[in-house]
Amino acid sequence: RMPLFPANGVYIPGSTEVLNIFEPKYRQMYNDILHTGSKRFAVAMFNKGRITEYGTVLNIDNIQDVAEQTNDQIKYRVTHTVGDRCRIIRILNADALEDNDKYLQVEVEILQDKDENEDVDLIHEEMITYTNECFAIFVDLQVRLNETVRFNPGVVNEFNVDRDGLWKAISLWKSYMTQITIQEEKKLQANIASIVKRHFVRQGRPIDNEAMRVNFDDLPPAVQHRLNVETRRFQRDVDSLLAGPYPFQRLVEHNSFVERLELFRYQIQYALDRLSTIEDLKIVLRARHMRGADPRGVDPQDPRIRKRKRRRRRPRNDDDDNDR
């Protein structure tokens, strides 16, 4: 039995997480945890009104009371180490889901991999080596393509997906995907600001460089529709990059090292294939540009194109006869 902290993301075993605690019920939760001396609680992803069955246990390493420095906006700043995976067997006080004054209490099962005692590193040495090599190629591609968000090449030497290193590698990959998501969010915000500004310009309203505060419901339906389209496009792009929380939730849910490794290998391979495709397209477009070809794929030196151009005639104009 332990408290449950619902989160909007996934916490990876072995990683370090810092939380700022400001809500009254979670202030009370930390007070109770410190009073009992357990210094741990469960965390699981909360989305669309539901709590995932699988989560992890957070162990408190350091807690600072920062109420005075933050004018009581934040009570505690807490550093945690993410520990074991866990499965939530049942919620002991389900009424807390509707009560903002109470935190959840749950009964959990601490999980171990079903292949915990197998020598998986030896059995699956080929898959481990292949995954490490995919990551190295991916980092090299990032440099060649000058990706905005990319790994430091030196990290390749530290990356290893054997049993001792898999969770660390997953945590590193999750940090990268978080930065990718932030980059996509900035693009979304810029697109939304552009749409709203254009609307104001059409209305003859002055625009300055200060942050705009706009009520969505006050905008015309056509503008609301465009904003909704941009938001859906952002979510689709993030999902297509496997950058959201769900791929990492699946890694936490898997009950064996081998299953987790196979899924993680797929995620890296997927990202590598994407960058390889981008590089191939750039090579093709560069070659066409050097030949003077149209970037749309039309080669002006193609005899068939030149023949069609010769057959074209200037459209007849009724004023031509008068000009003569």
Shape: flat
Question: Quaternary state, please?
Answer: single chain
Q: How much strand?
A: 15-25%
Give unreliable regions as ranges: 317-324
Cα distance, first to last residue?
Answer: 98 Å
Indicate the radius of gyration in whole angstroms: 28 Å
* Secondary-structure element series: EEHEEEEEHHHHHHHH
Helix content: 40-55%
In which order are the strands of the major sheet placed?
Answer: 1-3-5-6-7
Major sheet: size, sense and barrel closure? 5 strands, mixed, barrel
Question: What key attributes describe this structure?
Answer:
46% helix, disordered C terminus, 9 helices, 324 residues
How would you characterize the overall build of this protein?
The protein is α+β, with helices and mostly antiparallel strands and 324 residues long. Helices cover 46% and strands 18% of the residues. It has 9 helices and 7 strands; from the N terminus they run E-E-H-E-E-E-E-E-H-H-H-H-H-H-H-H. Strands 1-3-5-6-7 form a 5-stranded mixed beta barrel. The chain is flat, with a radius of gyration of 28 Å. The relative contact order is 0.10. The C terminus is likely disordered.
Give me a quick take on this structure.
With 324 residues, the chain is an alpha+beta fold. The chain has 9 helices and 7 strands.
Topology record:
Elements: E1 2-7, E2 16-21, H1 24-36, E3 40-47, E4 50-51, E5 54-65, E6 76-91, E7 104-110, H2 120-123, H3 125-145, H4 166-202, H5 221-240, H6 246-253, H7 257-290, H8 303-311, H9 320-323
